[in-house]
Amino acid sequence: MKDIPAGAELTEENIRIIRPGYGIKPKYWKDVLGMRTDHAMERGTPLTFDALEKGSILFLTNNTNTDGLYRWLKEQGEQVYRVENKVTAQMIAQMKPSLMISFNYRHMIPQEVLELMPGRVINLHTSYLPYNRGSSPNFFSFLENTPKGVTIHLMSAGLDEGDILCQRELHFDEEKETFASTYEALLQEIEKLFRENWQQIREGSIIPVKQAGPVTYHRMKDLDAIREKVDFDWNMKIGDFNPMARLVDKFGVSYNVTMKSVDDNIAELTTPENLKVGESYKLYVNNGAGGKMGESVFEESIFVREKKDDLLRLEVPWGGDFDFAKNVYNVKTDKRLQLKAMGDGVTNDQKAIQMAIDMAASQGGGVVYLPAGSYKIEYESGCGILMQSRVVLRGAGKEKTIIKYGYGKPFSTERVKGKYGWPLGWPDCRLEGMGLVFPGFISTCGLSDLSFVNVNECGHFLHTVKNMPEGGEKVFVKNCYFDDFGEYR
Fold first, then answer.
1. Taking 60 as the threshold, does the pLDDT of residue 418 lie above it?
2. Could you tell me the sign of the dihedral formed by the alpha carbons of 308, 310, 314, 319, in that order?
3. Where are the alpha helices (DSSP H) in 15-157?
4. What average pLDDT does the structure give for the chain?
5. How far apart are CA 463 and CA 484, in angstroms?
6. Is-contact 200 169, C-beta < 8 A?
7. Which residues touch 292 (CB under 8 Å, ≥6 apart)?
8. DSSP bridge partners of 259
9. Is the pTM of this model over 0.90?
């Protein structure tokens, strides 16, 4: 080793790794080879990032398929250095590069690095953003039938979410092209797009445009999950690839679906964005072998619903149908209610609660809220609480809001023959005597955060809950407790 003059190129002849040391970590050995020094260094001086040339371009990559563009930048006379390891804020603060170019780089750029170089960190991504952010964009663009293309964009904290500098859409013949050939075409096209716009990129004169439109995103393990289930090779023709699942509309048009295995019995589907709201689709699942013979069709169709806010956080496809959830009736305080409930465990609150439910239903729907308390439900005819469509009965928590029924002697205890002809009346439309009733054909209603308790005062009050004898839909029960036999007092 010997003294290194200012501006000298770092090589294996003038730097070495020694331990213990206080300079740049050994993992950056390959990265710093070829860089130049910012100032003269005496023999034996620890090499730090601060000693490296300022104002250079850092070309971040982990793949040799980017070598062509790297060489092209060199040929343009640019001071460009290839970096494979993860860049750090300390490294960037000391080197002060003029620009960073990420191209097939496996590491996320830390937020503190982006803050040190606002608008000067760009990424070359082989997809038509915002479609196919993340891993394997070429593969998923064909699997999900989304636009194909290339994008050069500013980097942000979110993966592939930065503003777009320039992009280009491409089209391929799926019966002739392979996944490999289309990937090579995308690489060539993004290099061409970069060279065409290099001067404006270098000067920072391109006005960035925010990403707009449907977003799709994939991780490496999404492709791994598919390869576990189906035969797949990058050199196969795209038209020969059999996706694991597809949707077919009423006209026979197919839409490819991404299917991820959750366990041996459950699969998670990601549908394309171009399905039509209000339409039904047949679901076909392929085992990846046997062509058409390996495909099965589900008896039930998939209905596409309009996406709405899930105000009650039900996490079901129809959760957005509870769009009335902000219309809340507090049974103790709401001025719209002629009769208020007490919730003191002594006053009979049956009429107050039922009137609140009926009013909410008449006004297009609402949440009848029962604050913490014990609500006595006593009745001598009919039923205790009759639920209505588009009404939710919600408490303050199943330990805090308790509805109690089963007072006095039971009535209408006989099991009569129902209109369906079954002996003992099952299914039975009879509501008489029941503590809580969800009538037939009810829709979009539920119970949340309360307990329903049969106090069974006489010892043989058996009437409890009647559930939709003629059927119903979009009915939920969430965070509730039921004691039908009076064991809870």
1. no
2. negative
3. 29-32, 67-75, 89-95, 111-116, 137-143
4. 88
5. 8
6. no
7. none
8. 269
9. no
